[in-house]
User: What shape does this take?
Amino acid sequence: RKEVEQDPGPFNVPEGATVAFNCTYSNSASQSFFWYRQDCRKEPKLLMSVYSSGNEDGRFTAQLNRASQYISLLIRDSKLSDSATYLCVVSLYNFNKFYFGSGTKLNVKP
Amino acid sequence: SQTIHQWPATLVQPVGSPLSLECTVEGTSNPNLYWYRQAAGRGLQLLFYSVGIGQISSEVPQNLSASRPQDRQFILSSKKLLLSDSGFYLCAWRSGLLADEAFFGQGTRLTVV
Assistant: This one.
């Protein structure tokens, strides 16, 4: 069983739309959670950390549900520049292992 | 500030040839270091991680090995490459003290022919 599972998409949305991605993790000992963004043929870059109380950064909102073992990312008012693959990441309790989901591809259309 | 360097950026190697990819980190000490591989259109697979000099943990059995000869140097190697070793190899570092995010090098795109 994979440590982290994501819907690969693609999600094709028009500019200005709101889109949400979910990600589930298998290990209840997971302690840290992140969303990364990866552009085509580039390295992943941190989009935002995910805190237990949920957090927001501009148009992006991340939430954590420990009981159901999933995290979510909400993007409001989508821009063309949001087109990328979004990777869900979890880290186990000792912070040494850092697992990535396979990513969800987002295409924002004009 | 911290930086991570990974080279080469691209590499084409014949089947059966050896491999050595190098990653170095600057501006931090005692980082956790990671090697990931990403096959075309796929997610990142954790290959190895290291919490200190000479300490290597392998996530999946395979044709590759890793070494950490110095605190901020992480090397990925193979004695004989297979076609299935092709992919995008990414080195990353994290603070060893806090639950911080990982930072990635720019990656090496390896094609085994």
